Amino acid sequence: MSFEHAPVIKGLMVGCALASIIAGVFDMKHYLHLQLVPHISRHHQYWRLLVHHLAYSNSSDLFLAELLLYNVGVHIERAFGSVKFASFALVSILLSTILEFLALLLFSGVGLNYIHSGPTTLVFSILYQYSRLIPSAYLFRVFGVPLSNKVFYYILAFQIAIAHLPSSAVVALIGILAGQIYRSDLANLKTYRLPPTIVYLSSRYLLPLVGSTRAPRRSHRALPDDRPTPERQIPLEDEVITTAPNDPPTNGGGRNASVVREWVDELTGRTDRASAGLRAPTEAEITHLTSIFPDVQRDVVVAALQRSPNIEAAAETLLSSQR
């Protein structure tokens, strides 16, 4: 899987990771979390309501969120389209911000006074859309319990939900509720789209920063383009390998003659001898050497001619064998 047709989710992942790293390097993590007392009620730091969505304060939460955004968010953006998905992300963050503030006001008396940083509500809102829109790829059973491939992503989300109890569980429920409100016709939020000016400016200035989202193209060729040429074998010193010269065609029927010659060579076995590095001696050469060496058998004369480039070399080979 790749980020093809999913530039928004890639931008969210890169932005969240960079913001988390920068906050850790420059020791700014204490500005990221959301706390009712004293930050909201006493110091009136309402900017924390939006800033706490930007980055995570620890690497484990960041890693789990990045896994969910990649494996779940890409499918949702491809199903929605980039413009609708960006509008959905903005609406989900605004809804979850309002719900988080109400949860702090209502449940501060029972111990809910602190919410950890990170876009956890957006992750669970995307996960809710994934559970409703994307069908299961396969089913399997574990001890008789029917499960699907989605269970692995739910396990990752469950680890985020129980990481910082009770605030992490409340944030997970708020994200699911925000996704359900967006999907329902309660406020007709599904029809909202970002203004065309923002879409144009984002595609012109922010999209080049995200980089290419095209998947790597794989060739359909069975063999690579540049096939390695086999190395030539070095013949042994005591073995002379020669090939007979090919006669070029002299007329228009040369092609037919070459086909007939190949057929005759296959019948007589000359093709096998050529592939073995042996030339086919003519009958005149055999008769000439047989008259010079009458005591030598015909098979020995033919073998000497086959392994020699010409008749003079074959004669020298026969002379050296008789010494």
UniProtKB/TrEMBL annotation:
Function, as annotated: May be involved in the degradation of misfolded endoplasmic reticulum (ER) luminal proteins.
InterPro entries (UniProt xref): CUE, DER1, Rhomboid-like_sf
Record keyword Endoplasmic reticulum present: yes
Name of protein: Derlin
CUE domain ranges (all copies): 283-320
Domain of life per record: Eukaryota
Keywords: Endoplasmic reticulum, Membrane, Transmembrane, Transmembrane helix
Lineage: Eukaryota, Fungi, Dikarya, Basidiomycota, Agaricomycotina
